[in-house]
Amino acid sequence: MIGFLKGLWERWSIRGIVFFKWTAFACLIGALVGAVGYVFHTAVDMATVFRQAHPYFIYFLPAAGVMILAMYQLCGLPHDPGTNYVLVAVRENAPIRLRMAPLIIISTVITHLFGGSSGREGAALQMGSSISDRLGRWMGLGDKDERIIMMCGMAAGFSALFGTPLAASVFAMEVCSVGVMYYAAIFPCILSALIAALLVHTLGGHPTAFSLAEIPELTYAVLPKVILLGILCAAAAILVCTVFGTFHRFFVRYIPKPYLRIAAGGALVIVLTLLSGTRAYNGAGMDSIEAALAGQARPEAFLLKMVFTAVTLGSGFKGGEIVPALFIGATFGCTCGGVLGLPAGFAGALGMGAVFCGVTNCPLTAVLLSYELFGGAGLPLFALCIAVSYMLSGYRGLYSEQKIMYSKYSAEFVGKRSGDES
User: What does the pLDDT read at residue 28?
Assistant: First the structure.
């Protein structure tokens, strides 16, 4: 009996030590990354407001691109691999340089200030992982703990910018190796994401959330319409990944000099802006997302945003692909909604979740993101549309270093990188 009690005490002592260790680390990372994330979020918003008040700033976009590239080269990162670097670092426990955090923050703000079409989650993931990785190495953590602490940083960074802690936590665990999740990270990831979101709210930030005017009931009649929209969103997601990859390869192949490449990309964005006759496709485009969720979207909007973003990021500007993907999903879904007999705004919301899933290969994150962005109403329909998009979008994705561990069509191990279609 004494031996049993002693063994029980030893086991629970070890668990208690681990629990308190990750509680402390998660709180520290959530607070630190959340504070930096709030500053970054505020800076992007200020840059957007300033650009909208001074539309001529877009004509300086090529020079801004040269400035971004010069910053990276001066800091010893001439070939910045972006979010892919973070995925490899988590999977292989490779170190992430702390200088990546200020570089990606400043360069993303510059991209938004001068009218490049990009998001901000790429900066959030790189910022959060670089800060947490450096903190973990200063503390002398082991290899396995290093992976967890980097995922905590990713979750905190994503949560700080979007105010969606549940989606942020699962995304950090799901995105690196789809089908294999590090469940040991679930507690510290959720806690760090919640701390980051609470801190941003305390400082005056607001979570990203939308309201829908009309949500259909779950009926036999609505199911085939949602399934068909999921099929269309899967095709749209494949198109997004194909266009992004094609433009990136085109710029690298035909304009090999980086400074000339990014300047040419900036010039092309200016030309596209003038030809389109609107500034709706510059920056993140949150106003257009809100309009689409209200049932108003131009039919060509998703294609134009796709091209604008592919040119911006493919030529070397910084930011992220997820917010543009949400823009594309919202406008595409809104456009298809009327044809399919679904409320246009609700179809736009479905499109956001389904296209996000198709380009990231993260279905659980997509379901949670839909819940946090739109509330629980209609969640089964969101889940259905997302599931269809995940199954039919193939193995392409925004991140070439992402690994799809299991087949989307059978219980078979495949272990292929995102983009390796076969």
Answer: 94
